[in-house]
Design a protein that fits this description.
Radius of gyration: 21 Å
Number of domains: 2
Distance between the termini: 28 Å
Shape: globular
CATH class of the largest domain: Alpha Beta
CATH topology of the largest domain: Rossmann fold
Strand content: 5-15%
Number of strands: 8
Number of helices: 14
Helix content: 40-55%
Structural class: alpha/beta
Length: 346
RNA sequence: GCCGGGAUGGCAGAGGUGGUCAACGCGCGUGUCUGAAAAACACGUUAUCCAGGUUCGACUCCUGGUCCCGGCA
């Protein structure tokens, strides 16, 4: 028996974004309790199994991964979404958090896959008449839920990539020009010098050559109704932000980040994997190779996190978010009121 | 104490017959963004140890000082 779908207008989506260490998840859990919500992570690093402390999953010791039996993401149908992915949730404080532990660290995960999975989860939450709350620091992942990204569905072509990595940007540009001149012209200077972007553009052009009737189909998009979407941005002054980062690093060391990395390395996950390029992991490479002292690693980690927070702000400030300063005393009340208001609108 | 080498931007570190000069890297700052995004890429950013002298002109040559490094004692 299918539950009756809610009307389009009732399909609200709440998004909480902002730089690292602003307490996004804590706020989301509070809000989920208040508004009958479930959390969907939008984080490019938390999708990896076994990478918990460094990516800040903040799972309690006894939280276990589970799938929802009756949902279309459940055991049977969830498996058909694709065999590669594990889709389920952790219960934290009785609130489900989705989008964690989707793949192993040696898998190269990406936006397109995230977008597809997250959209399915969101629809599932709606079907259970609850409020999906997207929480995360990965701007591109959030963007992929806000607007249809036409070409993200085109899969990577590993063979082609293997050949193209040896070309320098001038050659790549020539190759792209031959395939799709307009695409090259549309690129800005930064992208035109970015081998990764050029290779991707060539990849797309090659794909379209052999798939003439390619048609993009987004599962849903929120851009239709203004009242169906609220973006909440969290921020704080740089000084406070950096202080919070420092404290969190200390916490992660205490939680056993070194042990976690040791385990990952022992399992055979190499330093060159994209998953291991994340903050709080890559800094430890010289330490494990006995080339650097722990104190230096921590210092580097701190500045890397700071820079990351700054970069995140560059991204998020362009988004149509309502911003809240987390240091304001009645911060939570203000946010709650704003969301109440949002949920009441048709 | 003696002999030798050195002192260049926030750091590390090149160069050039005395002629706006001051590389590259790191850092820092500002950005870009359609399947690696905690990634990748673009743009910008600051200096010649101190006091004299020679010279039209010295970071580059000379004298003195200060500091650092190596060797001898």
């Amino acid at each position: 028996m299918k539950k009756q779908k809610l009307g389009v207008n009732k399909q609200k989506l709440l998004i909480i974004c902002g730089p690292t260490a602003t307490g996004k998840t804590d706020l989301a859990i509070k809000l989920a309790k208040k508004f009958n919500g479930e959390i969907v992570s939008a984080d490019s690093r938390q999708v990896y199994k076994g990478m918990d402390i460094g990516t800040g999953k903040d799972l309690s010791v006894n939280s276990r991964f589970q799938v929802l039996q009756r949902s279309h993401l459940g055991k049977n149908q969830g498996a058909t979404l694709t065999k590669k992915f594990q889709i389920g949730y952790y219960l934290v404080n009785d609130i489900p958090i989705w989008g964690l532990d989707i793949v192993n660290p040696d898998y190269q995960f990406n936006v397109g896959e995230y977008s597809k999975i997250a959209q399915k989860i969101i629809i599932d939450i709606w079907q259970r008449e609850k409020l999906p709350i997207i929480v995360g620091g990965t701007g591109l992942y959030i963007k992929s839920l806000l607007e249809p990204m036409e070409y993200t569905v085109i899969p990577p072509n590993k063979k082609l990539r293997k050949i193209l990595v040896h070309d320098d940007v001038t050659i790549l540009r020539k190759k792209l020009e031959k395939l799709d001149k307009k695409r090259l012209e549309d690129m800005n200077n930064s992208d035109r010098n970015n081998p990764r972007r050029l290779i991707r553009a060539i990849e797309i052009a090659e794909y379209l050559k052999t798939h003439k009737n390619y048609h993009f189909n987004n599962i849903y998009h929120c851009s239709g109704n203004k009242n169906s979407l609220l973006l909440v941005g969290l921020t704080a002054g740089k000084k406070i932000l950096f202080k919070r980062i420092e404290q969190r690093i200390k916490k992660r060391l205490k939680q056993g980040i070194i042990r976690e990395i040791k385990k990952l390395v022992k399992m055979g996950y190499g330093w060159n994997l994209p998953a291991m390029s994340g903050l709080g992991y890559k800094e430890f490479k010289p330490y494990f190779e006995k080339k650097q002292k722990l104190a230096e690693v921590i210092k580097k980690w701190q500045t890397d996190e700071q820079n990351y927070a700054k970069k995140q702000l560059v991204w998020f400030l362009k988004m149509p978010a309502v911003w809240f300063d987390i240091t304001v005393p009645d911060f939570y009340t203000v946010v709650e009121k704003r969301i109440c208001n949002f949920l009441q609108k048709a």
